[in-house]
Amino acid sequence: MIRKAEVTRKEHLQGGKGGAFVHTIVPEEELYNCGRMYAKIVLDPGATVGWHRHEGETEPYYIQEGNGIFIDDDGSRNEVGPGDICTILPGQCHSLENTSETETLTFIALIYRDLRG
């Protein structure tokens, strides 16, 4: 099967500032209760993904384009860019900031359930 990603505009992701285009790669119903999101996210210049927690699930980010700051569960702020992988473990909090005033920050996000039980 071949299809195009569904693209939606979202404002204030997880309570953050600014907006983003969310390109749904696989819809939640096709993740068969193993996950709830698989998407490419294009964060506007200066926009952020707000600080939030993942209970019973994990979410790796794969940074594709642009640069920003990943805020980890311990509050540390780490510069990220293309090729970096940010891993959020079950129960952890995180946030992401696009620090550019002119360029977007593009990343792949996969939220999947912790099935270790």
List the keywords:
single chain, 117 residues, mainly beta, Jelly Rolls, four-stranded antiparallel beta sheet
CATH superfamily: Jelly Rolls
Estimate the helix proportion, in percent: under 10%
Please write the CATH class name.
Answer: Mainly Beta
User: How many strand segments?
Assistant: 10
**Low-confidence runs (pLDDT<50, min 5 residues)?**
none
The proportion of residues in beta strands is over 45%
Radius of gyration: 14 Å
Number of domains: 1
Structure description:
With 117 residues, the protein is an all-beta fold. It is built from no helices and 10 strands. It has a single domain, classed as Sandwich (Jelly Rolls). It has strands spanning 6-11, 19-26, 35-43, 48-53, 57-65, 68-71, 77-80, 85-88, 93-98, 105-113. The strands form 2 sheets. Strands 1-2-3-10-5-8 form a 6-stranded antiparallel β-sheet, with no helix packed on it. It is globular, with a radius of gyration of 14 Å. The mean pLDDT is 96.
